[in-house]
Write a structure and sequence with these properties.
By secondary structure, the protein is mainly α. The chain has one domain. A two-stranded antiparallel sheet has the order 1-2. A hairpin with a 5-residue loop joins strand 1 and strand 2. Helix 1 crosses helix 13 and helix 4 crosses helix 10. The longest helix has 22 residues. The radius of gyration is 18 Å and the shape is globular. The two termini are 30 Å apart.
Length: 303
């Protein structure tokens, strides 16, 4: 049993390590007792994003975002993801964690950091279309792709399948976050969101797409982590609609979804639910579910 527990902790540490290159965003969350933030206890967001299937959801979202030439151009021209990939990944993960689980001061801080990062991101794509990362249409593509990515991943790889009503509630909850970044339009149902993404008229191949997808296929990770990542990338790609796969020039690998389910179940055994959910429940004075958390929130240890 000691060997099994040591293996579990090693796997959990390795899986979490790519996201640990920025300060934990909820380090002071217990200073805001009973502040539910934008979502709060009982929300679909807290349950869904606490599951490790969100790893696949995040990969899926980043790949789909690259199908929009102006969004891809903004990343290509202004992002440092090639030089600091794990830092960018950690900052993106922190934004999702803080905006979804944080108290309102933490939500507002996370949104302000994104606004500051997006302010100078302006230019023109290869097809002569002007872009601005802070513009409502471009913010909507990024936000909606992220929401859809997490939802689709949970429905394929999560511990249970959400009902249609729960899926719609998740999408509606996420619009509260997108509204703080002026994203528009934002569909308010799961079916409406998936149709909006799949039929979006502005999507096309681009130099930024090629660079982003090539990087996302083979990021600079340690060998064992890279193997795990490849399984998740293949699983994410297998859930992307055919039209978008054609634009992105990615293919479905036979058996990728089954492999993704097996791997995520294994990762769920090793990691349990996100400690961000646990510390948020603690902030709200809510009961802590038994047997679902295997990692202590860093803030609880520090205190």
């Amino acid at each position: 049993m000691d060997m099994v527990e040591a293996l579990r902790k090693r796997i959990a540490g390795a899986a979490a390590s790519p996201f640990g290159h920025a300060p934990f965003p909820l380090a002071h969350t217990l200073e805001y007792p009973e502040d539910p933030g934008l979502c709060g206890p009982g929300s679909v967001t807290w349950e869904l994003l606490a599951d490790v299937s969100s790893f696949i959801g995040g990969i899926r979202a980043l790949v789909i975002q690259a199908a929009h030439p102006e969004v891809a151009a903004g990343v290509k021209d202004h992002s440092r993801y090639q030089e600091d990939p794990l830092g960018r990944l950690s900052r993106t993960s922190n934004y999702v964690t803080a905006s979804s689980f944080g108290a309102m001061p933490e939500v507002e801080h996370a949104v302000e950091l994104v606004r500051q990062a997006h302010a100078p991101v302006r230019g023109q794509s290869h097809r002569g279309v002007a872009y601005s990362a802070g513009g409502p249409r471009f913010a909507a593509w990024v936000h909606n792709a992220l929401t859809d990515g997490f939802l689709v991943a949970y429905q394929h790889f999560g511990p249970r399948k959400l009902s249609a009503e729960e899926a719609d509630r998740f999408v509606l909850e996420q619009t509260r976050i997108g509204a703080m970044l002026d994203a528009d339009p934002m569909p308010t149902t799961a079916d409406g969101l998936s149709r909006w993404i799949e039929t979006h008229p502005d999507l096309a191949d681009s130099p930024g797409r090629r660079e982003a997808v090539q990087f996302l296929r083979k990021p600079p990770l340690p060998t064992l982590t890279r193997i795990a990542y490849w399984i998740m990338f293949a699983a994410a790609a297998a859930t992307i609609p055919r039209r978008l796969r054609k634009i992105l020039r990615i293919h479905r690998v036979p058996g990728a979804i089954v492999a993704g389910r097996i791997f995520i179940a294994f990762l769920r055994w090793a990691m349990g639910m996100s400690p961000a959910w646990k510390i948020s429940l603690m902030r709200m004075g809510e009961p802590i579910p038994e047997g679902v958390f295997k990692q202590e929130p860093r803030v609880a240890v520090e205190r």
